[in-house]
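W.,

You were right to be curious about this one. When I first looked at the sequence I had no strong expectations either way, so I just let the prediction run and decided to look at it fresh. Below is the sequence, 387 residues in total, followed by the output.
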Amino acid sequence: MIKHILKLIWNKKRSNALMLIEILLAFVVLFFVLAYMFFNIDKTSQPLGFATADRWMINLDDIDAKDSLDALTTMQNLKSNLLAEEEIESVTFTNSIAPFTNNQWIDGTSEGGFPMRTQIVPADKDFGELMDMNITEGRWFTEEDLDAVIRPMIVNQNFMTAYYPDKSMIDSIILFHGERRLIGVVDEYRYGGEFEEAHNIRFDPEPYTELTSNAIIKLRPGTTMAYAEKLSHLVNNTTKTTGSSIQTLDKRKKDSSDESWMLLYGLMGVCIFLCLNVALGLFGVLWYNINKRKAEIGLRQALGADGFDITKQFIIEMLILTGFALVVGIFFVIQIPLLDVTEYDDSLFYRAVAYSSLIMLALVMLCALFPAIQAARITPANSLHED
């Protein structure tokens, strides 16, 4: 039967070629859309490396514009007043390199004999505990680290994997614009949001009095946003400003991801629209072809074929044609992981190939099923009567 179907496909190669091209192009577009979607959705499944629940960020206004003594006094008073609040468990301060701000401070060196590049995050001694950082090796900063002869640093696991794989470098001296002592490793810190790729991160110790851009507070569980008004008055009265703003880290996380989610939803819409157009096209072509082949169908039934045989023939024809298109499409798109033309994980493309193929096969099956059932209902008498 397969040999007979292949001969039928070859005899109608002109009309089938258009259908094959349509399936091929739909597969290629679907492949790239799904690969992009998988790439981004995979990032959202990775841990941020820090906690956002019950954490609020206060954007401090114009403290850095004060003279040094006034700014120092303001920061000391602010920390003291915040910790005196019953609702607040702990406080830490950051500069503009804060969670979900999209700010970056990039540094690089080749002093160690090979190039190293990191994003720098200044942090005080309370940052690691308040943000619930997962320290996999070593420890977080202490007050004594601020006056250490050799400046300490903490890095993330991505840094270690990139430059010191399969090694423990705790308490080792690393040349990075001078000598630095590595005292700790955290698993991750994707402060740009859930769609941010993993970067090399280096934490540098700073006194909280010099981190005057933002305060991050950890509140007792169950504290509602109604407390924000009281908190705002406290901050403004302490800093003698009126421009401070307060947001939860959960909201900042959501806001930082909204644009990326909208793009993904748009791409999903493109996939659905593409599949609908392909389905309508295939359905129309199949319906037209069946009407043109009524004589052939009637003849087969007169020779003893039943309705199931007719249905099976049309479905197998479409699956074989789809198989040809997928083989050609897979041959071209599979070159991306095989030739390593991108830095992305090969499994991403293999998944996109598998899902694109399954979607196209399911789509063709659905489009072929109803016309094939209708073809099975054609009787020899009806086909001869219309001829």
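Here's what jumped out at me. Residues 188 and 213 are 23 Å apart (CA to CA). And, maybe more interesting for your project: Residues 249-292 form the longest helix (44 residues).

Coffee later to discuss?

I.
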